[in-house]
Design brief:
Number of strands: 8
Shape: globular
Order of helices and strands: EHEEEEHEEE
Strand order of the largest sheet: 1-4-3-2
Strand content: 25-35%
Structural class: alpha/beta
CATH topology of the largest domain: Signal recognition particle alu RNA binding heterodimer, srp9/1
Largest sheet: 4 strands, mixed
Amino acid sequence: MIGQLRCVVLDCPDAFELADFYRQLIGGDIERPDPRWTVGEGAAVLRGACGPVLAFQGVADHRPPVWGAPEQQFLLDVRVDDLAAAHTSVLALGAVPLDGGTVDGPWRVYTDPAGHPFRLVRP
């Protein structure tokens, strides 16, 4: 092993706005910039009780990834117990559904407010 994963960093237009979206989705605490975790002003860190640390870095010319395109950068999976209830909740937070299907399948694909894809998945 060469190293250990410290966090996942997402570029976005507004770090605190996107950190708050994920705080409402997966829980945790948003902390002010910390030199151990961020690269400067305009950054936020979301730490939860378990799972990876998510860091958010404000980028003025942010271009969101394109779902299904070769340049797609990553996908976050979020396990939920009730897919229909979670679907309604993430839409209220500003998520945009991408798969156009119903909540009958094993997952649903969305983008967060900055355009990053994530899936809600059943256990």
